[in-house]
Amino acid sequence: MLDNLRLWIRGRLYVPDKGADERSRMRLVANNLILHLHPTRVPASALRFTYTWGLGGISALLAVVLIATGILLMFRYDASVEHAYTSIQLLETEVMFGSLVRAVHHWAANLLIITVFLHMVRVFYTGSYKKGRGFNWLVGIFLLLLVVTFNFTGYLLPWDQLAYWAITVGTSLLGYVPVVGNVISGFLLGGPEVGQATLRNFYAIHVALLPAIFIFVMSYHFWRIRKDGNISQPERRAGERVARLTTIPHLVQREFAVASVVITGLFLWAMFVPAPLEELANPARPPNPAKAAWYFLGLQELLLHMHPLAAMILPGLILAGIALVPYWDRSDEDIGIYFRSATGQKAALIGTGLAVVLVPVLVVLDEWWIDVPGWLPGWPTWLSNGLIPLAMTLAGLAAIYTGIRRHLRSNHSEALVGLFSFLVVSLVVMTIIGVFFRGPNMALVWPF
Ligand code: HEM
Hints:
By secondary structure, the chain is mainly alpha-helical. The chain folds into 2 domains: 42-232 and 241-287, Cytochrome Bc1 Complex, Chain C; 294-448, no CATH class. The chain is 70% helix and 1% strand. It has helices at residues 2-12, 18-37, 49-52, 55-74, 84-94, 98-125, 134-156, 161-175, 181-189, 196-227, 247-272, 297-305, 308-323, 325-328, 342-368, 372-375, 381-408, 412-436; strands at 41-43, 244-246. It has a two-stranded antiparallel ribbon. Helix 7 crosses helix 8 and helix 8 (161-175) runs antiparallel to helix 9. The longest helix is centred in the middle third of the chain and has 32 residues, at 196-227. The chain binds protoporphyrin IX containing FE.
């Protein structure tokens, strides 16, 4: 009633509406901010959700959630061996919404690893590292490593059994990295074993060093996307016209919808599934099995089959190969097309199928039958169980690549799609084996 009267008066007289002025100024600022991140118009096809799956944006959103909840956690967390665990317990029991804030931080961090990984997979499959986007691909790989380091350093902070032993295993894995491994793990540990110095180092890296680097690199990643001509699109045929839509409201509406679903889902999940907290860390009582964090279990699985030297060189070579892919796949006519072509789709299926069958078979064979060091007594294990299986694996990867090229008559880029699929699915399968199928003494077990 009163509102109607006000509107009626405003229709007849000029009554300045301070609220409306304020709102339009805020809208102007918001639009300005959005148009700093996005171009004013985008190709209609770039708005298709199933092109990007919103994964880059979701990762950025999760990063913001992590920074916000991380700041809240800092008010109560105490980075000392004596008080870290109790400060978490107090946060969970005495602080209003403390348990929720911690759970949101925990699950967002885990989800971020998955979304960033899937974003990388989508960028690869659409060939979006082509046409001048190679450097941003490299920046992305650096972001992926930063996200893993964020998770790794955060893992220790609750100072419970899970944290203590996962980091003990994790830093010992680091020690196997040739040349720099011991220096890095020594620096992180700050002493002979995980202790007060480690907790202090991890905390400083987690809350100060990494956020500063991450915010800078992520901003650069966004700036580069615009500089490289915005997100990739298939090549236009001669004379073909591209329909363009305005960013506001078309793109922003979609981003808002995705963000609302992600935030709602995350909060609901966090309300019902609290972040884990086991008993206080006890250096004298290692759990059996002592497992690394889930995203390192693929690596830990590799260590069960190969000498540490090979188990570190192999993922290092694969990571370097993936990071440098824009420099050894230079064709760019298939940019923006999922799997490059129908042949590329077949290559992806072959790579996936091979990984799903070969990896479990090899794991089982190696557990009960393959024993190269036993077959070659007197040979040093770094050779019999290290360089020999490493050379065989690299030869296997080369065979997959050449097999796809010959069998499908594919081009280089399509064969890389097959090889990449094999590597990505192998990592997923090995991680699943590490999480569910490894029991006491890391022996294979049936989980159901
Ligand atoms: C926290 C990590 C990351 C964030 C927040 C992020 C964010 C984004 C966003 C918002 C986009 C726009 C398109 C989209 O939503 O897919 C994008 C595009 C891109 N990202 Fe990322 N990204 C991250 C990590 C990575 C990684 C790990 C890679 C690859 C190794 C990568 C490589 C690229 C490339 C090459 C583009 C351009 C894609 C195109 O033109 O279609 N990014 N990123």
